[in-house]
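This part of the workshop introduces the protein records we will be handling. An example says more than a description, so a record of this kind follows:
>
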Amino acid sequence: MSLHDLFQYIDCTRSSTALRESYYVFPIVEGTHVISLALSVGLVIWFDLRLAGWILKDQSVSAVFRPLRPFMLGGFAITFVTGAMLFWSLAMRCYGSPFFWAKVIMLLLAGVNIAIYHLTIDRHSAEWDKLAMPPVQARIAGLVSLTLWVGIIAAGRMMAYFL
């Protein structure tokens, strides 16, 4: 089965059609997606700005991250579920959208960036956590994250206009 066939199968399911044609559920899912995205990515941007050394220099990186983490993760969980539902309802339109594929690639890159940060740089955070300016690797991780999330949001908005 090709990727095209898979997307076509999803698009033809009853649940996809029902969601796509719903007067109430689709707008609720879409609205929830946008609100949860604002929560999760808004907090990620806040953390990334600290990681880049641009804000809250008087607070340690871990002190900034610790209270944001549950809200970021909760927001991402809701964003993931609602995003999957939006994809499910418009699979074939997504398949033909360059903005969808750009968003998918940037989401994967953001995941790699997060993994690299937590598996390498963050493991040594005890050494640099309280510095006003984190080490260059941490700042790069923060700037890469900021750039990717701006791109992800832009691609998502473009999808909304061109699907």
User: Anything to note?
Assistant: Residues 61-89 form the longest helix (29 residues). The CA atoms of residues 33 and 83 lie 6 Å apart.
